[in-house]
Write a structure and sequence with these properties.
Shape: elongated
Distance between the termini: 35 Å
Helix content: over 70%
Strand content: under 5%
Radius of gyration: 19 Å
Largest sheet: none
Order of helices and strands: HHHHHHHH
Number of strands: 0
Structural class: mainly alpha
Length: about 220
């Protein structure tokens, strides 16, 4: 394969990593805004959604162009396919950040915060660590950061049900908590889906680096 192809692929990989951190940042900032009732920060997350979509579309187009122009094989082709699949997952993670940010104004207006929902911040911390380690494995071309993704995803799944039980308790204590309780459950659902996307990305990175397909769930 030509040097020009590898130069373009390396450049695209670097830009893609920056895009991955952009999507991660939307999730992190949205949860921080939710935790603190920070409507200004939530507004900044919402303002990034168009840029997220623009970047996602741009990567899809550039990656498909690389295939059409150079017809790569073996590891080069795996790298492009992996990046296309990761693009879809990172876009969804950024969008879940947007969805969480939309909940911030009603939370802040009702005076709610996450102080009593101890499992939700813990869940968010694990999910963000999963995003970080998938991006690290992609960047360093080393699978070791994603070897325990399955165990972390199991923990996230368990925490989702813990959040549901917590929310149910608060809703039973006072019917005025029902709407916000449902929002807590929805945030847990968003985080659980982000964890699933991390597992999917981990599978693609593993295949890209080793040529071996594994299942992470």
């Amino acid at each position: 394969m030509s040097d020009k192809f590898h130069e373009e692929l390396d450049t695209l990989r670097d830009e893609f990593l920056e895009y991955g951190h952009f999507a991660r940042g939307m999730l992190v900032d949205a949860f921080e805004a939710l935790k603190n009732g920070d409507e200004d920060l939530a507004g900044l997350v919402l303002a990034r959604k168009d840029e997220l979509a623009r970047r996602s579309d741009d990567f899809d187009e550039r990656l498909l162009t690389l295939i059409a122009l150079y017809q790569p094989m073996a590891q080069d082709l795996r790298a492009i396919i992996c990046t296309i699949r990761m693009n879809a997952s990172l876009y969804r993670i950024g969008r879940y950040g947007k969805d969480i940010a939309l909940l911030v104004p009603p939370f802040a207006g009702a005076g709610h915060h996450l102080g009593r929902m101890l499992n939700l911040p813990h869940m968010a911390g694990i999910v963000v660590s999963m995003v970080d380690d998938v991006l690290k494995a992609y960047e360093t071309r080393d699978v070791s950061p994603i070897e325990d993704l399955s165990a972390r995803d199991d923990c996230v799944d368990d925490l989702r049900y813990s959040v549901f039980r917590e929310a149910l308790t608060y809703m039973m204590e006072d019917p005025r908590n029902i709407e916000r309780g449902m929002d807590y459950v929805m945030v847990a659902r968003y985080l659980e889906r982000c964890g699933d996307h991390c597992c999917s990305m981990g599978e693609k990175v593993h295949f890209m680096l080793t040529g071996e397909r594994i299942e992470i769930k």
